[in-house]
Amino acid sequence: MKKVLVLCLATIVALCSFAQKGQEEFEKGMSFYQEENYTEAVSWFKKAAAQGLADAQYKLGVCYDNGYGVSKDYKQAVYWYEKAAEQGLADAQCNLGVCYAYGKGVSQDYKQAVYWYEKAAEQGHAWAQNKLGVYYANGYGVSKDYKQAVYWYEKAAAQGDAAAQNNLGFCYYNGNGVSQDYKQAVYWFEKGAEQGDAWAQCNLGGCYANGNGVSQDIKKAKYWYEKAAEQGNTHARYMLED
After folding, report:
1. In the chain, which ranges are continuous DSSP H helix?
2. With the C-alpha atoms ordered 129, 33, 63, 26, is the resulting torsion angle positive or negative?
3. What is the chain's alpha carbon radius of gyration, rounded to the nearest angstrom?
4. How far apart are alpha carbons 191 and 56 in whole angstroms?
5. Phi, psi at residue 27, to the nearest 5°?
6. Distance CA 34, CA 61 (A)
7. Helix or strand or coil: residue 123?
8. pTM assigned to the model
9. Which DSSP symbol is given to 139?
10. Per DSSP, which regions of the chain are E strands?
11. What is the DSSP code (8-state) at residue 191?
């Protein structure tokens, strides 16, 4: 029995030491990454990733995805995102969803995209929550369901995601998954617009132009259209020319 206990303790100590080494290697990689010395960063990420560190696997995926310190390779990006995603890392799950959504390194598969977005969304990942809302609103990989779209938009919007705030405002404006409510639409458009979301700015401009949810105010409409147009929003530019 004593021999078994000693062996177990030795194994635990070895595993802790192994994990600590991987963490140290990852931290070295992050130092180089932040300095934009991506070649050195990749070298350290590879060492840590090989030891099973999820954060390192994810960052190695990011490097392959973007060509940081390595030749761009979407298949390698997917490989490492998958490793980290299977360990429950939300950022990796989200990025793996993006790969499936756009067919980067894998065949395009909206159902798989939804699967991984949902994994990340359930962990509170705001960007994934918004994307999941978009997929429910449009029926990508799932049956179209505006109530589910609103559910996920609300989750992301409450965390301050500007795109989700705009999307939630759009649902209230059109009565998609909720009762139509122009005041609530304005509330959420304003939240997104103040954070610089071009579509939220454009939509808020439309509310002021038409007096929906607010008193009609052409000056404010122009202000928000201009804000959106400065970011390249073509609809806002059209409204300014109209």
Report:
1. 2-34, 38-50, 54-66, 74-86, 90-102, 110-121, 126-138, 146-158, 162-174, 182-194, 198-210, 218-230, 234-241
2. negative
3. 23
4. 35
5. -65, -35
6. 16
7. coil
8. 0.89
9. T
10. none
11. H
Distances 30 to 45, 84, 238 between C-alpha atoms, Å:
8, 16, 44
For tokens 């505006």, name the residue.
Answer: 146
Tokens of 30: 């992050």
Closest CA to 152 of 163, 27, 88, 201: 163
| 114-144 per-position pLDDT tens digit | 999 999 999 999 999 999 999 999 999 999 9
CA distance 166 to 136: 16
pLDDT digits (tens, 9 = 90+) for 202-212: 999 999 999 99
pLDDT for the residue numbered 242: 78
pLDDT of residue 13: 46
Q: 146, 177 in Cβ contact below 8 A? A: yes
* Tokens (6 digits) for 43: 């070298």
Amino acid, res. 156? A
Q: What is the dihedral angle through the alpha carbons of 92, 97, 101, 107, rounded to the nearest 10 degrees? A: 80
- What was the pLDDT predicted at 2? 59
Could you say which DSSP state residue 122 is in? T
CA torsion through residues 84, 89, 95, 100, sign: positive
